Amino acid sequence: MLSQLRTIWTILKHTFSRNETVQYPEEMPYLAPRYRGRIILTRDPDGEERCVACNLCAVACPVDCIALQKTETDGGRWYPEFFRINFSRCIMCGMCEEACPTYAIQLTPDFELCEYDRPNMVYEKEHLLIDGPGKYPDYSFWHVAGKAITGKDKGTAENEKPPVQVRSLLP
Amino acid sequence: MTTINIDGSDYEVAAGENLLKAALSHHQDLPYFCWHPSLGSVGACRQCAVVQYQNPEDTRGRLVMACMTPVVDGMRVSVKAPNAVGFRAGVIEWLMENHPHDCPVCEEGGECHLQDMTVMTGHTSRRYRGQKRTFENQYLGPFLNHEMNRCITCYRCVRYYRDYAGGTDLQALGSRDRMYFGRFEDGVLDNIFAGNLVEVCPTGVFTDKPFSRTYTRKWDLQSAPSVCQGCSAGCNIFASERYGKLKRVHNRYHKDINGYFLCDRGRFGSSFVNSDLRLRQAGVRIEADLFQQVSIEAATQHLRDLADSGDVVGIGSPRASLEDNFALMSLVGEANFSCGMNDVEAAMMDQIFDLYAKTPDAVATITALERADVTLVFGDDPMNAAPRVALAIRQAARNVHFDMAVQAGVPTWQDAGVRGHAQHALSPLYIATPLPTGLDDVARQTSHAAPADLAVLGLQIADQIASPPSDDAEGFVANIARDLLAAQHPTCVCGTASAEPAVMQAFAAIITALIKAGRKPQMLCTSAEVNSFGVRRFAGLSLQGALDRMQQGSNAMVLQNDLYRREIPAMVSAALAGAGRVLVLDSFETATANAADIVLPVTTYAEHTGTVVNCEGRAQRAYQVFEAEGQDIQPAWRWLSDFEHIDDVLHACAALPAFEGLEAVSPEAGYRTATNSRVPRATHRFSGRTAATAHVSVHEPKTSVDTDTPFSFSMEGENTGQAGALIPYVWSPGWNSNQSLFKFQQEVGGSLTGGEPGVRLGFAPSKSSADGSASSRTKPATGEVNLIPHPQTFGSDELSSLVGAIVERCAPPTLWLNPDDARALGLSSRDGATWPDAKTTYLVQLSDQVTPGNALASVGVGTGQSVLPRDAVTLIKDSAFTPPPDLIARG
């Protein structure tokens, strides 16, 4: 008897507590910037594509849902000719972001990826590439790498000496 | 054998070896850089340090460089001793001080020896905070990228390029930490073995330029063991694919053929598979210049109708596999089948077969040529015909170094010591060819003359061998005869490129004379194409006979053969015009295919499994790498026969007496590894499987089941412990680079753990009665010259010439003339010359090495013709000709 009364009391008490249900989608939940949702490709501070098509995201991906092909600009920058993520396979694990040496691939707090047709879940580079640097506003891989590209000659990257004068005989 | 103790375990190792090689032969993980199995030890990089203990009581030991330490019976060493581990880590840390932050944009990344060694020694973060040293790069030609920042100064590149391959234009330049490995100025690396730098360089200084353009990481490549299609040497290659394109070719070790190195024609020319000229649909001619696409069924019906017509000739090809040729021969009947070589080449092949059949023990393997103490190169420049053979001959010239080293008590692997002691001493190498060769720099004596004169010279050598010259006799012939008779392994190399049967006859006379004199000679004869030594085993019509029958109205089936490359164009045109219906099966649009009534697309070596026979008579299997794009493309044997599996074709072919023992060529489709698995074509970390084709269909396709081979089209299976012929790529835990090869070898530089791929077939005397003793050439009239074909390393081979990078490396069409002849004709150096019916104007080069009355003409790319007129021609000056710039120029 006591137990039943207590149960009724508990339930009635909830009538006055705050509602936990969020009225999604009218009301959007807060998601941290580091939340692992839809994947994007970012640009470096100069506005150029960050991805150098090194393939490390693809090899880190446990479900093998990233495929790309390297190509090169006349100036020597490596970039992906195509970059494809099959989101119908993606498990949002973030291993690609962790593997990326250029901060190009990043996960965002957008998780709303529902589609009626599976083929629409296949994102190409045009769907992935955004216009900004994402979570890392300052990093530019090409300013650290030793390979020369147009606008960045040998010896002008961070922490580099000017190119060696091979013909020098000085000790 | 010697017993040594490494970290408490006893190992049996070969006496006199160095400790590094001994440790690697027992599959120990010992880091190294500057050492290479083919280059020996110099102790430059200090990476292979181990601790050696004085005696059983010694607990402290001392650091030694394993590559410079000879093994001694009972020696005790430690790879894992803390001070050795610490020393190696220190060396790596210091090598990495200046290494750029390049791995993501480096073509070596993922298969980099430096990466592997860095991980192996445990170096993870750069403590040094100073600035990094940088270098400018150089343009090195269409084959190689140069990225000097990545260099770790191991000296392997110059040691390979200069000491091993005989190149002169790559140097170690500069001083102290400014060491620079490059040319004295930008320009094409002119050695034709430069491509091996890609594999020799332990990091990414020299990388594969064509591969880099559409780069794919090693772990993403789908690979299979294959055989290079560039010449008759039959070098073993790993051919690798991604996204339906053949991406790159790497060396696949074979103890008796290519060892650790390939030539550039093979390495960079094998991607002809991706040519824009590929045929992808079956077509039937409906108008003069119009083909209509037809289905496989309709095309097969056309083929059946032709086969049933009762009057059809089949023309096979030395660039098609045995299975394909066999299927055609079975379909048309032996009496109607021609091997597809022109009659001169076929006659020379018959002479080789007769010679090989008569003296089977004398047929050398390619690496056996390296052990020759006296070598005669006769009639044909191997640098052009079969470049890998020339590289082996170059090593033979150094053999005296090792004899001198042994006498002086220097271990033969002590590279600097051996070279320093021997200085410029060279083993006798004699060269008798129409023009100077790329081996002349290591030759003791050379003689350059027209093929007909070389034949005479050869007979003189044979005579001198039969009646040995006196010790004081001088001259080319006497020296050769004396040295060959005195040699332990007298070695003679010839080839078919001179298109002069008399040359081969003279060569046979030399070998026969040596055997009569009680010597044990080694010999090797090369031909231009990958399967010349296989297809010539099929009896049948001569090409002339086949063309005659076509001209009289017979139907014809032509298998992977451009007849315009075989015979005089007018003759071929007449045959094609006179023939009934002509069916061509080919992978490429050729002049012959364009003249056909029915064209059927067939797969290339990378898209089917096929067997080819190399110049030593070794049958080898080139396995399918990937599935051809295009629904209509199938292997020629599928078009031509009802066999279900490739092994069935092989068995039927092996039933012919000429192919006895062929079944043993490689394991059959049912072969499985010890764990009952297939061998995977893809690496275990193959990426992108659920995205690669998602743009076409989001449903992943079912992996194709390979019913023809023991390989899988996926990463499923086991890439260890299989037969030697079934290694699709080399990889071992911790060893991602090609240096992991030693894990697949019984001992470093020895046999593969699973045995050597391929099987050597016997030779039977040919049935032809052609007498090649007399030269077919007559002396030209005044004002005329005999044209002699002079094949080039790049451009004369049909298949590799479909590749852009190879075409970039081709020399312009060139005519080499004797200065006296040129003066009489009013021609001077760098003029343009042509003759009636010639397709282009040739650049004139003068050389007093050309026998008067002869002109050597390059064939292939740019010349528009591969067969030169057999009668003497009158040369005409082309005054409108502007000479092209020099080849070795900045790009």
Short key terms for the protein model shown above:
heterodimer; A: 171 residues; alpha+beta; 4 helices; elongated; B: 891 residues; alpha/beta; Ubiquitin-like (UB roll); 7-stranded mixed β-sheet; globular
Secondary structure layout:
The complex is a heterodimer of chains A (171) and B (891).
Chain A: H1 2-14, E1 39-41, H2 56-60, E2 66-72, E3 78-86, H3 95-99, E4 105-107, E5 122-123, H4 125-128, E6 160-163
Antiparallel strand pairs in A: 1-4, 2-3, 3-5
Chain B: E1 2-6, E2 9-13, H1 19-25, E3 49-53, E4 62-65, E5 76-78, H2 82-95, H3 113-121, E6 132-134, E7 144-146, H4 156-164, E8 171-173, E9 180-182, H5 197-200, E10 206-208, H6 209-213, E11 222-227, E12 236-242, E13 245-251, H7 264-269, E14 283-287, E15 290-293, H8 296-308, E16 312-315, H9 322-332, E17 337-338, H10 343-358, H11 366-369, E18 374-378, H12 382-385, H13 387-396, H14 399-408, H15 415-422, E19 429-433, E20 445-448, H16 451-466, H17 476-486, E21 490-495, H18 501-516, E22 522-526, H19 532-535, H20 543-551, E23 555-559, H21 569-578, E24 582-586, H22 591-594, E25 598-601, E26 610-613, E27 618-622, H23 636-640, H24 646-654, E28 679-680, E29 711-712, E30 759-760, E31 784-790, H25 804-809, E32 814-817, H26 819-825, E33 832-834, E34 842-846, E35 854-858, E36 873-874, E37 876-877
Parallel strand pairs in B: 1-5, 16-17, 16-23, 18-19, 18-21, 19-20, 21-22, 23-24, 24-25, 28-29, 31-35, 32-34
Antiparallel strand pairs in B: 1-2, 3-4, 3-5, 7-10, 8-9, 11-12, 12-13, 14-15, 14-25, 26-27, 27-30, 31-36, 32-35, 33-34, 33-37
Helix pairs in contact in B: 9-24, 10-18, 14-15, 16-17, 16-18, 20-21
Overview of this protein structure:
The complex is a heterodimer of chains A (171) and B (891). Chain A has 171 residues and is an alpha+beta fold. Chain A has helices spanning 2-14, 56-60, 95-99, 125-128; strands spanning 39-41, 66-72, 78-86, 105-107, 122-123, 160-163. A 3-stranded antiparallel beta sheet of chain A has the order 2-3-5. Chain A has a two-stranded antiparallel ribbon with strand order 1-4. In chain A, a hairpin with a 5-residue loop joins strand 2 (66-72) and strand 3. Chain B is α/β, with parallel strands linked by helices and 891 residues long. Chain B has 5 domains: 2-95, Ubiquitin-like (UB roll) (Roll); 108-119 and 129-274, Alpha-Beta Plaits (2-Layer Sandwich); 283-341 and 540-654, Rossmann fold, CATH 3.40.50; 348-533, Dimethylsulfoxide Reductase, domain 2; 784-877, Beta Barrel (Barwin-like endoglucanases). In chain B, 25% of the residues lie in helices and 17% in strands. In chain B, the strands form 9 sheets. In chain B, strands 15-14-25-24-23-16-17 form a 7-stranded mixed beta sheet, sandwiched between helices. A 7-stranded mixed beta sheet of chain B has the order 36-31-35-32-34-33-37. Chain B has a 5-stranded mixed beta sheet with strand order 2-1-5-3-4, sandwiched between helices. In chain B, strand 8 (171-173) and strand 9 (180-182) form a beta hairpin. The longest helix of chain B has 16 residues, at 343-358.
